[in-house]
Amino acid sequence: MAQHYYTVSWDQLHRDSKALAWRLIGMRPFAGIVAITRGGLIPAAIVAREMECRLIETVSIVTYDEEERGAPRVTKPPAAAGDGEGFLIVDDLVDTGATARVVRGLLPRAHFATVYAKPAGKTMVDTFITEVSQDTWILFPWDTEPQFIAPLARSGAA
């Protein structure tokens, strides 16, 4: 279980994904983007929009069940990306690097970018925006929802 939690709002994810696109835009023209599902779908859409890239492929890797990590399994390979030449891989986070190693094996010539990176996995990616500690669990906006919380005065805490 994670020691710390970091909640990312939709606005923050959008800003960070746009910052990733800004960092990538001058590197080279990319033929397309490979989004790692599911977490990389939204950052990839934002990056694709900012870079005016229309070719989007996906690779589906199953690694987590809630907060429990398992062995990565490819459930859908990125057929249109070949060996990755000219492609940009986008994911929300690199944690231990387990998923990144699998994707790197499939697309060895692609440029790999994530929005967030943890120390154990950051060497697996070429570009990232924000580093978080290894013991931090990021709560992405698709994992949370705002809800009403009663004022303290109503709980009898006064």
If you had to describe this structure to a student in words, what would you say it looks like?
The strands form two sheets. Strands 4-3-2-5-6-7 form a six-stranded mixed beta sheet, with helices on both faces. A two-stranded parallel ribbon has the order 1-8. Helix 3 (98-106) links the parallel strand 5 (87-94) and strand 6. It is an alpha/beta fold. The protein has helices spanning 10-24, 41-51, 98-106; strands at residues 4-7, 32-37, 56-65, 68-76, 87-94, 111-117, 127-131, 136-139. It has one domain: 3-Layer(aba) Sandwich (Rossmann fold). Helix 1 crosses helix 2. The mean pLDDT is 93. It is globular.
Secondary-structure element series: EHEHEEEHEEE
Looking at CATH, which topology would you report?
Rossmann fold
Largest sheet: 6 strands, mixed
Tally of discrete structural domains: 1
Oligomer: single chain
Q: Roughly how much helix do the residues carry, as a percent range?
A: 10-25%
Which structural class do you get from the secondary structure elements? alpha/beta
Count of helical stretches: 3
The poorly predicted ranges are none
CATH architecture: 3-Layer(aba) Sandwich
Distance between the termini: 33 Å
**Any idea what the shape is?**
globular
Mean of all residue-level pLDDT scores: 93
CATH class: Alpha Beta
Query: What's the total number of strands?
Result: 8
Binding site for Mg(2+): 92
Organism: Acidiphilium iwatense
Protein name: Xanthine-guanine phosphoribosyltransferase
Pfam family, one: Pribosyltran
